[in-house]
Amino acid sequence: MSYFDAASAAPLHPVARQALAASLDEGWADPARLYREGRRARLLLDAAREASAEAVGCRPDELVFTASGTRAVHSGIAGLLAGRRRTGRHLIVSSVEHSSVLHAAQACEAGGGTVTRVPVSRAGAVDAGAYEEALRPDTALACLQSANHEVGTVQPVAEVAAVCRAAGVPLLVDAAQSLGWGPVEGDWSALTASAHKWGGPPGVGLLVVRKGVRFAPQGPADERESGRAAGFENIPAIVAAAASLRAVRAEAAEEAVRLRELTERIRARVPELVPDVEVVGDPVRRLPGIVTFSCLYVDGESLLHELDRAGFSVSSGSSCTSSTLTPSHVLTAMGVLSEGNVRVSLPPGTPAEEVDRFLSVLPGAVAGVREKLGAPSAVRPAAHGEQDALVVDALGKLCPLPVIELAKVIGDVPVGATVRVLSDDEAARWDIPAWCQMREQEYVGEEPANRGAAYVVRRLT
Amino acid sequence: MSYFDAASAAPLHPVARQALAASLDEGWADPARLYREGRRARLLLDAAREASAEAVGCRPDELVFTASGTRAVHSGIAGLLAGRRRTGRHLIVSSVEHSSVLHAAQACEAGGGTVTRVPVSRAGAVDAGAYEEALRPDTALACLQSANHEVGTVQPVAEVAAVCRAAGVPLLVDAAQSLGWGPVEGDWSALTASAHKWGGPPGVGLLVVRKGVRFAPQGPADERESGRAAGFENIPAIVAAAASLRAVRAEAAEEAVRLRELTERIRARVPELVPDVEVVGDPVRRLPGIVTFSCLYVDGESLLHELDRAGFSVSSGSSCTSSTLTPSHVLTAMGVLSEGNVRVSLPPGTPAEEVDRFLSVLPGAVAGVREKLGAPSAVRPAAHGEQDALVVDALGKLCPLPVIELAKVIGDVPVGATVRVLSDDEAARWDIPAWCQMREQEYVGEEPANRGAAYVVRRLT
């Protein structure tokens, strides 16, 4: 098996495993107690805090351990918003944040606050100017990921932090995807991370709040972790998290070069090997281990299943996964194709041979899915002067079928004429424009219909 | 070293350690993913949920795993209160709940709700009738621990559950101290527990909500654990928690008998070996492994330090611990002495010899602390007809010094006359009446004073 989904969860680093085993004997007691076992637990906790703070680039007393990265995000955003309630209740986030940030933003709105979602480029990056424009007198907090979890695009955190700092607004950085590779640059105010993303154990998140940043913990009081993370400390896991962070950092510079070459290989070869593919995300400012592409006329779940059968564990932000029926918010915010989406995220240590084998397996897997779905193999030559206003009825058909139906008839549409695709699948709203862009056809727009909507496409070539 | 603080955190059970090590290899991936590693993680999570549900006596889909017992309590109370907001915002708790419950109750009050704190007997038990009286038309929720964490007293959960059920009010049971010993009886609606209390790893709590009980999760949305526990699941720890719960249950019946004999030995011998001691908590309806006593004229922190030097790790709910300067809320609610308090909570497997050695060490440790504090060794014979209204100035002196000063002068007070103790230490408010009860003197009451208060005591014997 080749596990290529490190962006979801990295396999446990050997150092994490050793540290966890060792600290189960020393770190199980209550660090608030004064007796020997308690003092030993406290020493381990303090040492882990110092090591983690050094890796983050903060003071130990600015860092608390939470039970997960999601919990760090939820508690961090809630505490920072409450700390600046007098200023206002306006929150700025990028439109491609992790769901934990977007859910916290929804909670802010449900509580009477307002949220601005800053758009991104087609490469998935925000612009510092857009954050500057979003700032208001009542802005309590801005949030920005250090790098995107679905496409790997690195965000201009230092520039956004400078813009926020100038306005006196704190910036929280979700560093979940990047902290293993290095500290987050710039003058940020708060930072969150998750140990199982860098090879640490599950059950440990980091919440860092710089001295001088107003923070009011929400929820019932609890004296542990400076009142910012309720519940008994999971010291064995915390020790393992800190030890593995140091270990992955020691290997980061060399491993980043190696993985970047492997993902570059995928970026370059996939469009050569597989027709009708769009590689997404910034080709240069990106994380070393992540590469994401979308395949026309493919549903992501079937493709993942084929790849799993071939021994590859990858994930998908596609609209066609079983757990979420809406398209990936990241891909739709970027305006790129979301159907047949595959994210490859290589764990450190991935052998080059596994990547080569993936490249040898992928074309057949995509072709197999397309064949089952009856996808068009090529567009027929354009015929001029035929009927206008052709209508494709794709009602009741789920992604990627509406796009497949469109592709099947486009050859019958005269150049300059339009075709209407009737669809009640939400994904069509993003995938039909994305298809037009890939195929160099014109997406005219969306029209109301009795059921779903009519998506109007004009044939250009 | 003898570790006698299992009620804070139990050492890891060998089965927990084995299960944790095994599941680190199998359970690190995201159980929401469809590939092989994700499916394996899902299988482990499902099996752990079934095993835990069986131990609790509930359906697997009624149980979610949280990151700690505290988190289970906080999320459980918040979700149950919100689920019944239409009914009202009145919460009933006992006055001897764990701080996590009391902090959640404070959060309820801060949010506009009202809280009734049901008193307890001198043994630390609530009365079902008191819960019945506390019920109101706007009562949203009642909470009761299965057994007390400081004194071991078992609560009448089944009776209280019946009273609540009759009124249509859900009852949440905090079973943190008892779940390792057996399921909680009675028709409760929700239950919380914490794995590290039964020998499981830290980082795992249980939240059980019976089908049909209204529950509205609070905080930002998250799809994991039925939306009731945000954040990536800590599957290795969850597997270890479930496996160790089954293991301790298999040993529970036999070990309960053995530990009960050992704690009974402490209950009986300590008052014989150490003068001026009060053993607290119910002598019969109690947990097998917990025994608690308070020593007059002793500060708990010094005594814990002496016992630690002698190789015993115990804890104290005393007013004199460093982390909290107020007396234990449990002991004050019971109306018993809080000074010089020691809680012995034996982990399963504690050898009888360790308990005997504790009994041999304790008298010297107490005598040593008393000597340093200048505690009275005996009350002088009563002299009649001397001056009334003697005043002891204990201002600026912390527990146990005000009681020591009182004891020193009581011999000078004529029988029938009173003495006033001036004190600005909060603990005196509970400790002077408790001393009177132990010494069979009359506690007349508290009078205002320029600083602190005057506590009036009449000599009877």
UniProtKB/TrEMBL annotation, chains A, B:
PROSITE patterns per the UniProt record, alphabetical: UPF0033 (PS01148)
InterPro entries in alphabetical order: Aminotrans_V_dom (IPR000192), Cysteine_dSase (IPR016454), PyrdxlP-dep_Trfase (IPR015424), PyrdxlP-dep_Trfase_major (IPR015421), PyrdxlP-dep_Trfase_small (IPR015422), TusA-like (IPR001455), TusA-like_sf (IPR036868)
Named cofactor requirement(s): pyridoxal 5'-phosphate
Reactions that this protein is recorded to catalyse: (sulfur carrier)-H + L-cysteine = (sulfur carrier)-SH + L-alanine
Transmembrane helix as UniProt keyword: no
UniProtKB keywords: Iron, Iron-sulfur, Metal-binding, Pyridoxal phosphate, Transferase
Keyword Isomerase belongs to the record: no
Chain ranges of the UPF0033 domain: 392-416
Family statement: Belongs to the class-V pyridoxal-phosphate-dependent aminotransferase family. NifS/IscS subfamily.
Protein name: Cysteine desulfurase/sulfurtransferase TusA family protein
